[in-house]
Amino acid sequence: MSRPDTDLLDSLSAEISQQLKDFVDQALLGFIRPNSASQFAQHAPELANFRETIAHSDSKDDIEFLRSFRESVPTTNYEPYRPYIAKFFATHCKESDVKNLFAPGLPYCLAVSSMTSGKSAKTFPTYRPAPHLLHHPLYLSLPHSEGSTLSPSSYVEDEWPLLVDCIEKGIIPDMENIDHVREPLEKHFTPHPFRAAELREIGPPGIQGWAVRVWPDLKKFIGITGGPAAASVPKVVHVLGPSVAMQSPCYGSSELPVDGVTEYLDWELVTGGHYEPVLTTRNGLWRYRIGDVVTVKGFAPDDGLPVINYLHRREVAVDDAIISASKRWMGQIIDFTIVDDDRDTPVTYGYLVEIGGKIGEDARMGTQQIFEDLMTNNEFRVAFWQGRARKPTIRLVEKGTFTEYRRQKCDKTYISMGQVKVPIVLSDTSFKEWLLQRVIMEL
Asked: What sign does the dihedral 177-182-188-189 (CA atoms) show?
């Protein structure tokens, strides 16, 4: 979560530190006590020591219960949960098979990971919180919406005349797959010729601070700024201008919705340190290693919670490498993905990148910088010296490629374009071939 650095504490006082510990303890107890009666907690081999410990102690004692959790529960990954989650997809799935599986009752939905890492999707049951928990600070900690804004995306730039014309006439653009909602939506649209004239004078996104000219009262932008979205941050910052604060609403993922407790493999956090989050959630994950690496910017002065920035996955940070190289050498990235480049041996990371605007004069230096960044990872470095890895490659694709990619994915999956993520690592061979046909230059 991002907030102005000047508001942060470099370290915690003893009083705030104790308040934070009490808050975390109470949140953990609210999750692990009810979840300790779940099918997973009662039978998973990974929690055998925990079950034995609480059987030989006073399980009603909160201090003893938390001590048993911290001393007996190991970190976990997805594998222990996989056979239990498979029960939801059994041909003859009975309610008794999946009731109280990870948490009390039945889940109200199954969340599916986005597969941006290129691996197979993971499924995570999501349970409704008890009504009394909705007033818990954990559920009230997210900032309330202060109004919606239109993302300054390539679509707005490309379709600016059309959008302004629709505002002037009070109509909805002729878009695919909205016939079923056009009539009820158009009832709320009225012509605004004066506003359209203002927008025509301002022009499409491009100048620094464009958003403030369009919305003079805009003070804060709340949105996803980490992971694959980080490639768009420089452009968003330019369009917003220096007077608008940018904030991520929370640290979240398919595994960790709002209602989870984040520990770190090294709990003695210091400002500037790098750590791996470990998650325990109301939905039934026990000290789950999500595989991210974050850095601590400081500590919130009101409650002492660490304010973090996402850095990269625990594995080789292939996405951060291209984002860093683009800022220095290549130009503004619109989007990118990585494919296996098997034109030579050994196979290497093949970056397919769409650049907006002018390509940097020294863009070819980007390949060397990515290689140097990857060499800081011990696993990649060892593989390179053993001849199992080679320098990555960068190929640029024509403008509009990833917009068309999203459109084609929408046609195949029947979901909206806003829900389509470009995977960091692309494994779909048909889309790989399609993207390679749109390459215009190799760096």
From this structure: positive
